[in-house]
Amino acid sequence: MTMRKKMLAFTLLSLTLMLLACGERNDPFTPTRPMIGGQAVPAANQAHDLEPEPLLEGNRAPAALPPGDFPVAMAIRDLVPVSAPVNKSGLLRHDRKGIHFEAYDGSSIAIPYRLPRDMPPPTLPPTGRLELYDLSNIGGARMKILLTDDSEQPLFVHIWETSRVPMDIQIGQDLRLIQLPPANQVEPGHFPATLAIIEHGRTLGNIAPGQTAMLQTSAGTISVTPEISVLTVPAPGVQDPDYPHYILRAWVTGGLPPVDGRDSGQLQTRGNNMQAVPANQ
Length: 281
Prior knowledge:
Blueprint lengths: L2 H19 L50 E2 L2 E2 L2 E2 L4 E10 L2 E6 L4 E4 L1 E4 L10 E8 L8 E6 L5 E10 L4 E5 L2 E5 L9 E4 L2 E5 L2 E6 L4 E5 L4 E13 L11 E12 L10 E4 L5 E3 L3
Antiparallel strand pairs: 1-7, 2-3, 4-5, 4-8, 5-6, 7-20, 8-9, 9-10, 10-18, 11-12, 12-14, 13-17, 14-15, 16-17, 16-19, 17-18
């Protein structure tokens, strides 16, 4: 037999054996070899029934905030923190778990939060506008949650930013938060920066870091807490393009009832306690 014929015969034999091995079986998961015939297939890698994670009603977002009593706010969509910028109008709802925003395009975002202790929760109308981003990284925090009503008055604001210069942040129509440079900053260290609330170019109040103030604006009452407002100055000889820099972490809630009949521009400050309370407590 020539070599070519031997190779052809070997190929035909191999194909025949493969076809026999791949013949149809009534149950492809039933063992057929003599030594294991009649044995049941072990229950390996089977799915288990797990208790689902608690969800915010009407939104696929975890209801639980990080453990602890520190102030915190999150923006969550489909179980994932929102980082891409959002600027949309939609429907608002508020319960003990947080704020629920349903945009007119059908997308929804949950905002669970814990406020600083002395802050009242916001009162929300049926509709509003949400602007947010979270660009935080290892270099520092960059986050803004700005919820306003249809007339652009603040309802819920959480700002956490860093900057080389004092920050000037608009939180509503003609309403701004402005950091004031500390008077004494010639030596290295951390210097508290007072936060001014400005409306129509007029100062409604100056709030020291850690204080909570109730302010009457032309459109209603807001509560403001600069949780952190500081200028950091490095030691001499430190060459870092990010220093000196300002840090601001501030909270605002709105839609509140008038404070003791105060007129626009008057304020009332409370305490210096940064313990936090969850939504609607």
